[in-house]
Amino acid sequence: MTTQNLLVELFVEELPPKALQKLGDAFATVLADQLRAQGLTSADTAVTAYASPRRLAAHVSHVAIKAEDKAVQQKLMPVSVGLNAEGQATPALLKKLQALGADLSAPAAAVAALKRAQDGKAEALFYDSLVTGATLDTGLQKALDEAIAKLPIPKVMSYQLETDCELPGWSSVHFVRPAHGLVALHGTTVVPVKALGLSAGCTTQGHRFEALVSPVVVPHADQYAEVLQSDGAVIASFAARRDEIARQLAAAAAQAGNGARPIEDDALLDEVTALVERPNVLICQFEEQFLDVPQECLILTMKANQKYFPLLDAAGKLTNKFLVVSNINPDDASFVIGGNERVVRPRLADAKFFFDQDRKKTLASRVEGLSKVVYHNKLGTQGERVERVRAIAKAIATQLGDAQLVQQADLAAQLAKTDLVTDMVGEFPELQGTMGRYYALNDGLGETVADAIEDHYKPRFAGDTLPRNTSGVVVALADKLETLVGMFGIGNLPTGDRDPFALRRHALGVIRMLVEKDLPLDLNALLAGAVPAFGDKIADASAALADFIYDRLAGSLREQGYSAQEVDAVL
């Protein structure tokens, strides 16, 4: 059969950046799958997804104008039901044939054309027919409707469109963002489909400010990306745009000199790719006085609030330069650079203010403030939680070391949560633990306690490092055991994919520390020893919790390559 390549594009208002790549892939995949299900594509068909801030598109190769007709054999009913004693058709059979569109002008001939075949223990009647293949017009309409319906939209918008019929009025449309254009090209031919109140054509819109022409005419399905880039100043492919941004970031960092390199953050790169249509990376800078603030604070505010790429030197230390991915490419970029530098300055000033204010109070003076922060309505405040962690940490430290370890672990456990009531962590919760370490050093508590305060959250994720010193291991174990024992004790267990208190991650963290640090501690004794710290707030669920932890251990061992039989035998 003769085929042509197909291009479908939805032109919309700015799409949610964190969902853009997923939306683009889903649109192309479902569209191609639906065409394939209707027999309109071939075995050689390739699918290319396009996604930019204002468009979702798919290029599907080798699409037929019409699917081939198919011979279909359908079972009707047992012979004993369809034919009477004289071999004539029963009313049930005639009704079935009529529903299938069979020619009943000569019922005897129609019945004679049926085939008989053994079906299990009984003989059945089968009807052979030729199903007409779907045309591209109807097939693409069905595929497009399905692709739109199955988009993983984070939140649907509703908006009104004026109807184009004789009677004036408005119709409601529900989609992720208001849609303004639809392109459907089979080779050079427009396929007359409709979606979201729009009729398909061969024109789209390019960059808001830098497109050479408006509208952009797409002459052929295969020229979509090329014409959109040349005439519309838009890189339609998400992957191509991402690669171009990465290339420009590396080039700009090299231009900045001194071995500078942009911070590596795939999530940030993906988000920025979803925000620009024509990337242009520029070098900006801020005053060096802000480098007195911990670099984690500056990096976080630049990444999270401004979507900038901070530049690190060869030693991994933050510099006073950063990279901006602009969506315009003016002849004189000084205004763009100056604007971004003005915008980032108040953000950095806020971070410096928070840091300076927080250091005016010691961590020890903040302990009392934790009694005003609710941890859980059944388990009390953060202050009560801290006392439980201290009790568990003392017991563990006593088994692992001397009086010095007990003292250091107790102090770290007492102060580990105090940075939660600082201004910096209030603004940037991601910095909890990190800021605790800086403030502990500022209070003169020493590296051991400071490291333990930061590390008590570790491991935060799969593959994360473990605490650096024994005090940190003790407090991290105590913190995770307190969470596990407390939540199991009040029956707050993870279900399905819901685990709001990250109990699975805490269990894996306990396992990793016990195994990788080779600690001479008995798990069951640890769990039982943590229960008294809660008083009468919880029931003893140590047995169920032990089973839960061993299940996580079994899963961890299987992921490391051990067979199910080996894991079961060991456990």
Describe the secondary-structure layout.
Layout: E1 3-12, H1 20-37, E2 47-52, E3 55-64, E4 70-78, H2 79-82, H3 91-99, H4 107-112, E5 115-119, E6 122-131, H5 136-149, E7 157-162, E8 170-175, E9 179-186, E10 189-190, E11 194-195, E12 198-199, E13 203-204, E14 216-217, H6 224-230, H7 238-256, E15 261-262, H8 266-273, E16 280-285, H9 295-306, E17 309-312, E18 318-326, H10 334-358, E19 374-376, E20 380-381, H11 382-400, H12 403-415, H13 423-427, H14 434-442, H15 447-455, H16 470-489, H17 503-516, H18 523-530, H19 542-559, H20 564-570
Antiparallel strand pairs: 1-3, 1-9, 2-3, 4-6, 5-6, 7-8, 9-10, 11-12, 13-14, 15-17, 16-18, 17-18, 19-20
Low-confidence runs (pLDDT<50, min 5 residues)?
none
How much strand content do the residues show? 15-25%
Strand order of the largest sheet: 2-3-1-9-10
Distance between the termini: 60 Å
Please state the second-level CATH architecture of the largest domain.
Orthogonal Bundle
Please state the overall shape, judged from the principal axes of the Cα atoms: flat
Q: Identify the CATH class of the largest domain.
A: Mainly Alpha
CATH topology value of the largest domain: Hypothetical protein af1432
Count of alpha and pi helical runs = 20
Secondary structure: number of strands: 20
Binned, the helix content reads 40-55%
The overall number of domains is 4
Structural class determined from secondary elements: alpha+beta
Q: What is the radius of gyration?
A: 33 Å
Oligomerization category of the chains in this entry: single chain
Question: How many strands, what sense, and barrel or not for the largest sheet?
Answer: 5 strands, antiparallel
**Nearest-integer average pLDDT:** 92
